[in-house]
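Forgive a beginner's question, but would it be possible to get any protein sequence you like and the tokens describing how it folds?
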Amino acid sequence: MDTDNLRLFVMAAERLNISAAGRALGLAPAVASARLAKLEQELGVELLRRTTRKVSLSLDGSDFLPYAREILAQADAAKAALGGSETGPKGTLRFAAPSSFAQRHIMPLLPEFHARYPDLTLDLRLSDTRVDAIEGSFDLALRSAPLTDSSLKGRKLADDTRVLCASPSYLTAHGMPNGPSALQGHHLIAWANLEPRKLVGPNGETVRLEPAAMNCRIIVDDGDSQREATLAGAGLSINSLWSVSDELLSGQLVRVLPAWRLNDDSVLWLVYPRSNVLTPKTRIFIDFLIWHLGNRAEWVG
């Protein structure tokens, strides 16, 4: 199977445009169409459906696409291992990450990354709703959770310490809680997941933080929105230190119950499907993120 034709198919599938994919590879439209037809004939299926108005993936093409990406990744990794790559990494890296983290910490790094690796394209899918790294055919994904999925491998990026905080204006109006029991009745800006959390005290004692026992009038599914509502004085909230460390340092937000910690064992992981070869482009991006964002003391608490 010709890897050049596979690469053309992957690019055409990502762009839904055969001519554009061909131009990116230095091929005339007629040559690109002929090569794709040859690949389809070799496989015995229609991969792309063409009409006069648009190109779309067929069901067979959708099923075949992750395998085509994997074959190309294997080929690129093998070539790199043998010293066969004379230039820097090329191609597209599909990366999924929480929008709130990416906007605050990854987007400012992109000019430096592209200055170092001008031939790499980052296809970023940013959402605070968790995505499936395998179903989405991502090369890499950022997750904040214990790594329990056996189909994934990963490297730790940083700790993800969570803290309870509020704005000075809210605390002036409603008072500073002096212990976990005093949280009852306070306004809570809650994540969509309202599961109880465990608080660990200075002497190792534990209590359950029950969101249901608090006055929860705002439920969000976006970390930036949660932080902004907290800054506005709408209530208490549980935030990652990577999200609010600057505001805590400036005094715009105040730690609530600073002697107590949330015991949820969350860690920021860079994960990729276990079946994937760790390609040079993926390894480069992992190392770049860890160099800039790993071991941040202000995120530990």
Residues 162-262 form a domain with the D-Maltodextrin-Binding Protein; domain 2 fold (CATH 3.40.190.290).
